[in-house]
């Protein structure tokens, strides 16, 4: 293999793939039974981190950045004048194997621009995965992109070799999609998603009867939405996300703050800053929905369409529902403990175990590691000393903001001064 | 008043378990457990040298197994590997607590400071183990062995053997701890612990000198890849260093320029 040529292709095709934020290598399990190469553990491993702080866990590349579509938000769109390149199937296989052997990566994340048509592209992606699994005896992680519009038969095959499949919905609303990606149909995105969901359900049912049913996409499917390209509210985004979690059993929905890469009057201007803080608040909300037992309507609704930027969504919810507090940490059940600002799932678990032995006081709680600067206004414990005066949402919020020193301060200083 | 007893052992986990055995057998009150090479004689103390006996260690371990869950057993071993000064004493307190009759296997008393401490230390060691699984960078030498050197904060090589053995089952590999001067080597069948006579010059650079051109090409390709995936408009140095603290950069092919 010619080093110079590969090096150039890698530069172009890794650069084009980096806007896909997913780099998870977790959620599936694959053993290495016949002394081949690699395995996949449920935890996943981040082997490195980019200078923007994102995890590098997979070799994330496009097979090619030639594309027949012209989506406004996408750097590889047809009308964009950039260098184009394409990997051969064997080249991707060799890169994956050699990077994996050196412990650089957990596996491969292969996506592609769409050339000729959807099925032709999907077939090429599948042949890379097939070659890795069958010829190279590779048991590492493989994430394939489901190409919008790909046929059911191909999606079935893809799931037999890949751990995870994903289609990026990209624009959270159908009207937004029409505006920015006029040649793509919403249904084309949904089709492979539906097929993968049905196959996973079918696999799970058959597995109960026939033990050696071939595995189908053990790490499930995921999707991604671009945030801040079309003026949608946080409520629109999270309701969409909830829809995909429920309807298509998504393992993950990713939120990607829009990075202005192209001049287009339908999009935010080139110098617009990436909405990193908003993205962070959306992820926090996502976690509250998936692990903390919140329902989306509690966090975002008609009277509360956007998340607060200056405080986290759980604290924001608690301030709107002060009548539920203070909570006695020595008595409250697990569900309620998880709703207290400043107490995470790990702390809930520790509190529940420890309070069997004795009533907990402030010292215990501090040692366990809960964030008292937030939690103190919402709890009582085995101590006569607790925060009782002045319990209005605004005063608590101001006290917390004053006592905390967040790295995001520079993002919301201006907004705060509006109210003071 | 009884003088304080300093209990010395050889530094092995079995040795430590024997200390626990002797503390109980000889009813030593308030002992201080130290590794033999750390001993410093003080006035008004009695020194007790413990010999490592496998059967005694096993008796203690078996008793612990009966009273604790798998996670707790792992935590005890992990905390021991931290090599933090004085951790043996915290462990002893923890173990005494376990042997107390009212100790329950079903829940962990996180309001007890020794128990909390051990679980926190075990967590630190667990993190370092996970980092080693992530940051080891193998270089393929001309003898066809994939070699990496590391210098972890805690003695975590014993904890990562399984991971690497399962994953890299079809290649010979060696991970060498330059700080503790031993390595783990997989010869396609099993993993052995090995040491070298001349340990002075072993590091990633020295390994690199033994590599062929193809290896160097792949290292360059990896660096190319690493550079290409950064999104410049999202640059966040603080977060970057939080994820890979500078002390690990020396292992990482992508962080030192070729």
Please bin the fraction of helical residues of chain A.
Answer: 40-55%
Strand content of chain A: 5-15%
Question: Tell me about the biggest sheet of chain A?
Answer: 6 strands, parallel
**Distance, first to last CA of chain A:** 64 Å
* Mean pLDDT rating of chain B: 90
The spatial strand order of the largest sheet of chain A comes to 3-4-5-6-7-8
Strand order across the largest sheet of chain B: 4-5-6-7-8
Biggest interface, CB < 8 A:
A-B, 60 and 54 residues
Which sequence of SSEs, written as H and E, runs from N to C of chain A? HEEEHEHEHEHHEHEHHHEHHHHEHH
* Helix/strand structural class of chain B: alpha/beta
Q: Count the beta strands of chain A.
A: 10
Percent range for β-strand residues of chain B: 5-15%
Number of helices of chain B: 9
Shape descriptor of chain B reads elongated
Please work out how many helical segments of chain A DSSP would assign: 16
Intertermini distance of chain B: 65 Å
The shape of chain A, in one word, is: globular
Structural class of chain A: alpha/beta
Radius of gyration of chain A: 24 Å
How is this structure best described in words?
The complex is a heterodimer of chains A (420) and B (258). Chain A is an alpha/beta fold. Chain A has helices spanning 3-17, 89-101, 118-135, 152-161, 174-180, 186-209, 234-247, 276-291, 296-299, 313-320, 334-337, 345-354, 362-368, 372-375, 393-403, 409-419; strands at residues 48-49, 55-56, 58-62, 107-111, 141-145, 164-166, 221-227, 252-257, 327-328, 379-380. In chain A, strands 3-4-5-6-7-8 form a six-stranded parallel sheet. Chain A has a two-stranded antiparallel sheet with strand order 1-2. In chain A, strand 7 (221-227), helix 7 (234-247) and strand 8 form a beta-alpha-beta unit. In chain A, 44% of the residues are buried. With 258 residues, chain B is of the alpha/beta class. Chain B has nine helices and eight strands. Chain B has helices at residues 13-25, 54-67, 70-81, 87-99, 113-135, 157-167, 204-208, 213-228, 237-243, and strands spanning 4-9, 32-35, 45-49, 139-140, 146-150, 173-177, 182-186, 191-194. In chain B, helix 1 crosses helix 2 (54-67), helix 3 packs across helix 5 and helix 4 crosses helix 5. Chain B starts with a strand and ends in a 15-residue tail after the last helix. The mean pLDDT of chain B is 90. Classes of the chains: A alpha/beta (420), B alpha/beta (258). Chains A and B meet through helix 1, strand 1, strand 2, helix 2 and helix 12 of A and helix 5, strand 4, helix 6, helix 8 and helix 9 of B.
């Amino acid at each position: 293999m010619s080093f110079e040529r590969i090096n150039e292709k890698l530069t172009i095709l890794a650069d084009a793939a980096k806007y896909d934020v997913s780099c998870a290598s977790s959620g599936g399990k694959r053993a290495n039974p016949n002394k081949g190469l690699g395995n996949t553990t449920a935890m996943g491993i981040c082997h490195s981190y980019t200078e923007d702080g994102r995890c590098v866990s997979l070799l994330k590349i496009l097979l090619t950045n030639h594309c027949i579509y012209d989506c406004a938000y996408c750097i590889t769109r047809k009308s964009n004048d950039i260098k184009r390149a394409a990997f051969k199937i064997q080249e991707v296989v060799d890169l994956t194997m050699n990077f994996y052997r050196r412990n650089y990566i957990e596996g491969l994340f292969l996506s592609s621009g769409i050339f000729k048509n959807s099925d032709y592209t999907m077939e090429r992606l599948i042949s890379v995965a097939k070659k890795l699994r069958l010829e190279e005896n590779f048991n590492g992680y493989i994430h394939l992109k489901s190409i919008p519009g790909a046929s059911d038969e191909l999606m079935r095959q893809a799931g037999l070799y890949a751990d995870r499949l994903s289609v990026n919905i990209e624009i959270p609303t159908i009207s937004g999609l029409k505006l920015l990606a006029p040649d793509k149909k919403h249904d084309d995105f949904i089709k492979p998603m539906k097929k993968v969901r049905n196959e996973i359900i079918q696999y799970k049912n058959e597995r109960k009867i026939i033990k050696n049913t071939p595995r189908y996409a053990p790490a499930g499917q995921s999707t991604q939405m671009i945030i801040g390209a079309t003026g949608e509210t946080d409520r629109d985004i999270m309701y969409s996300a909830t829809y995909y979690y429920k309807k298509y059993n998504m393992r993950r929905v990713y939120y990607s703050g829009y990075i202005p890469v192209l001049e287009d009057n339908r999009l935010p201007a080139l110098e617009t800053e990436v909405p990193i803080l908003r993205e962070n608040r959306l992820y926090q909300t996502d976690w509250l929905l998936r692990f903390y037992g919140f329902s989306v309507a509690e966090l975002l609704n008609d009277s509360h369409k956007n998340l607060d930027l200056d405080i986290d969504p759980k604290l924001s919810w608690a301030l709107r529902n002060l009548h539920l507090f203070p909570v006695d940490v020595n008595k409250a059940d697990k569900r309620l403990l998880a709703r207290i600002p400043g107490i995470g799932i790990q702390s809930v678990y520790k509190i529940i175990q420890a309070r069997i032995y004795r009533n907990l006081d402030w010292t215990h709680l501090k040692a366990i590691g809960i964030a008292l600067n937030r939690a103190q206004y919402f709890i009582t414990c085995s101590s006569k000393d607790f925060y009782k005066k002045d319990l209005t949402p605004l005063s608590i919020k101001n006290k917390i903001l004053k006592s905390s020193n967040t790295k995001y301060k520079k993002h919301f200083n201006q907004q705060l001064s509006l109210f003071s | 008043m009884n003088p304080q007893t300093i209990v010395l052992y050889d530094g092995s986990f079995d040795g430590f378990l024997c200390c626990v055995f002797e503390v109980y057998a000889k009813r030593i009150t308030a002992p201080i457990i130290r590794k033999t090479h750390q001993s410093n004689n003080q006035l008004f103390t009695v020194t007790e040298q413990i010999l490592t006996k496998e059967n005694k260690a096993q008796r203690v371990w078996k008793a612990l197994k009966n009273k604790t869950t798998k996670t707790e057993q792992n935590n005890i071993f992990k905390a021991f590997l931290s090599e933090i000064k004085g951790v043996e004493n915290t462990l002893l307190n923890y173990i005494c607590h376990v042997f107390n009759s009212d100790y329950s296997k079903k829940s962990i008393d996180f309001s007890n400071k020794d128990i909390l401490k051990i679980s926190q230390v075990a967590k630190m060691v667990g993190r370092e183990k996970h980092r080693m699984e992530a940051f080891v960078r193998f270089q393929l030498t001309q003898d066809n062995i994939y070699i990496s050197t590391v210098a972890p904060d805690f003695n975590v090589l014993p904890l990562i053997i399984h991971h690497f053995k399962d994953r890299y089952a079809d290649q010979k590999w060696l991970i060498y701890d330059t700080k503790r001067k031993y390595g783990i080597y997989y010869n396609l069948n099993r993993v052995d612990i090995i040491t070298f006579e001349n340990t002075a010059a072993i590091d990633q650079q020295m390994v690199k000198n033994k590599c062929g051109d193809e290896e160097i090409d792949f290292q360059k390709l990896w660096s190319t890849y690493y550079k290409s995936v950064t999104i410049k408009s999202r640059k966040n140095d603080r977060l970057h260093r939080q994820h890979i603290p500078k002390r690990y950069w020396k292992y990482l092919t992508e962080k030192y320029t070729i």
